Amino acid sequence: MNLSEKDQLYNWHPYTQHKTTGLLPAIVKGEGALLWDENGKEFIDAIASWWVNPFGHSNRVIADAIYQQLTTLEHVLFGGFTHNKAVELSEKLLSILPTNQKKFFYSDNGSTAVEVALKGALQYYYNQGQKRTKIIAFEDAFHGDTFGAMAASGITFYTEAFQGSMLEVARIPVPVKGKEEQSLKALTDLVATQEYAAFIFEPLVQGAAGMVMYEAEILDKLIAVCQQNKVFTIADEVMTGFGKTGKTFASDYLVNKPDMMCLSKALTGGTIPMAITTFAQEIFDGFYNDDVNKALFHGHTFTANPTGCAAALASIGLLETQQMQDNISRIHAQHLAFAQKMKDHPKVKTTRVLGVIFALEIKTDSAESYYGNMRMKLYNFFIQNGVILRPVGNIVYILPPYIISTEQLEKVYSIVEQAVEMV
């Protein structure tokens, strides 16, 4: 019995209907932009393993930092203690984040980073004796799978089984081209009620919705409306952070900075689960009180794990190198050229590019479901041809590791082009 067969006996995979899913490839090795399964088949990891491996698999710089930390201090509880790597990482983040971000709350993954932000906003107003118990989010958002993050998400098949058990969230249109004023008016009407604690958004790119993109100018206006009405803003940078959009953070495109930011995924270069929620000083001050009951009672066993912090420091160091910045620019240029080539294809509805993110929408006669027949046909075609891509319905996106070679990326484009012809 091989690994794939054993896996089928034991394991329950995310976002998987096991009755209709066959054996899954068993990956045994990774290096750079490549992965190999137990049979020796090679795959190009064109989505950086769910957007977490910008510097490639088995990165020696991050691995060495992890090894050194493991042989010094692998873990210590963060409740009642601190350690040098958490202090160093916080200092480093202060130097690269928007200047209004002053406090850092460590957790484990993107969903919990969002959970901490939502709890921070809601409890802030509770601590002030104000009743603001609702959240605002975009339609078709995705912020994670824990209950608060799930409530803020708008992709219904993820959440429909739990309706009635979640936070109250009002949704506004995504301000894509042509819907900017509609989105702005909807937000303005909601915040005027003074019932909302926060507005959460994926800045500039909605990842799980199919890399839906909108402009920084309208997001600046939305944030300004929230600031005028004392509604906190939360930038979910779990996907967009650490170079994906061409800047270190998508929020770097903004004039008006969010009050909170959620970081994870590429934070540790795809090595160790870690997340951080960052806060403006005002929010922290809303918990700073002689009354212990006004503290933020939230925590995780592996909060600020020293090994994860060491990995994050090494990862940020790699991002800041000129070589990595040049790679990001190179991938962006290749994406633009491929988008130009494909935009007038008779089977292509739209193409869009931001930073290292490329998306292509295939024309369909009817609405294509998230995990529908077209998606599965495309996904299987990519896997058969040695490319890891996860289409969203009829949308194919590429979000590669920054170390992918020009030749590897051209191969990905070639396979995508063949897939478009196939459907």
From TrEMBL:
<feature type="binding site">
    <location>
        <position position="390"/>
    </location>
    <ligand>
        <name>substrate</name>
    </ligand>
</feature>
<dbReference type="InterPro" id="IPR015421">
    <property type="entry name" value="PyrdxlP-dep_Trfase_major"/>
</dbReference>
<feature type="binding site">
    <location>
        <position position="299"/>
    </location>
    <ligand>
        <name>substrate</name>
    </ligand>
</feature>
<dbReference type="InterPro" id="IPR015424">
    <property type="entry name" value="PyrdxlP-dep_Trfase"/>
</dbReference>
<dbReference type="GO" id="GO:0051537">
    <property type="term" value="F:2 iron, 2 sulfur cluster binding"/>
</dbReference>
<dbReference type="Pfam" id="PF00202">
    <property type="entry name" value="Aminotran_3"/>
</dbReference>
<dbReference type="GO" id="GO:0009102">
    <property type="term" value="P:biotin biosynthetic process"/>
</dbReference>
<feature type="binding site">
    <location>
        <begin position="300"/>
        <end position="301"/>
    </location>
    <ligand>
        <name>pyridoxal 5'-phosphate</name>
    </ligand>
</feature>
<keyword id="KW-0949">S-adenosyl-L-methionine</keyword>
<keyword id="KW-0032">Aminotransferase</keyword>
<feature type="binding site">
    <location>
        <position position="50"/>
    </location>
    <ligand>
        <name>substrate</name>
    </ligand>
</feature>
<feature type="binding site">
    <location>
        <position position="236"/>
    </location>
    <ligand>
        <name>pyridoxal 5'-phosphate</name>
    </ligand>
</feature>
<dbReference type="GO" id="GO:0005737">
    <property type="term" value="C:cytoplasm"/>
</dbReference>
<keyword id="KW-0808">Transferase</keyword>
<feature type="modified residue" description="N6-(pyridoxal phosphate)lysine">
    <location>
        <position position="265"/>
    </location>
</feature>
<keyword id="KW-0093">Biotin biosynthesis</keyword>
<keyword id="KW-0663">Pyridoxal phosphate</keyword>
<dbReference type="GO" id="GO:0004141">
    <property type="term" value="F:dethiobiotin synthase activity"/>
</dbReference>
<comment type="pathway">
    <text>Cofactor biosynthesis; biotin biosynthesis; 7,8-diaminononanoate from 8-amino-7-oxononanoate (SAM route): step 1/1.</text>
</comment>
<dbReference type="InterPro" id="IPR015422">
    <property type="entry name" value="PyrdxlP-dep_Trfase_small"/>
</dbReference>
<dbReference type="InterPro" id="IPR005815">
    <property type="entry name" value="BioA"/>
</dbReference>
<feature type="binding site">
    <location>
        <position position="265"/>
    </location>
    <ligand>
        <name>substrate</name>
    </ligand>
</feature>
<protein>
    <recommendedName>
        <fullName>Adenosylmethionine-8-amino-7-oxononanoate aminotransferase</fullName>
        <ecNumber>2.6.1.62</ecNumber>
    </recommendedName>
</protein>
<feature type="binding site">
    <location>
        <begin position="110"/>
        <end position="111"/>
    </location>
    <ligand>
        <name>pyridoxal 5'-phosphate</name>
    </ligand>
</feature>
<dbReference type="GO" id="GO:0004015">
    <property type="term" value="F:adenosylmethionine-8-amino-7-oxononanoate transaminase activity"/>
</dbReference>
<keyword id="KW-0963">Cytoplasm</keyword>
<comment type="function">
    <text>Catalyzes the transfer of the alpha-amino group from S-adenosyl-L-methionine (SAM) to 7-keto-8-aminopelargonic acid (KAPA) to form 7,8-diaminopelargonic acid (DAPA). It is the only aminotransferase known to utilize SAM as an amino donor.</text>
</comment>
<dbReference type="InterPro" id="IPR005814">
    <property type="entry name" value="Aminotrans_3"/>
</dbReference>
<comment type="similarity">
    <text>Belongs to the class-III pyridoxal-phosphate-dependent aminotransferase family. BioA subfamily.</text>
</comment>
<comment type="subunit">
    <text>Homodimer.</text>
</comment>
<feature type="site" description="Participates in the substrate recognition with KAPA and in a stacking interaction with the adenine ring of SAM">
    <location>
        <position position="15"/>
    </location>
</feature>
<dbReference type="GO" id="GO:0030170">
    <property type="term" value="F:pyridoxal phosphate binding"/>
</dbReference>
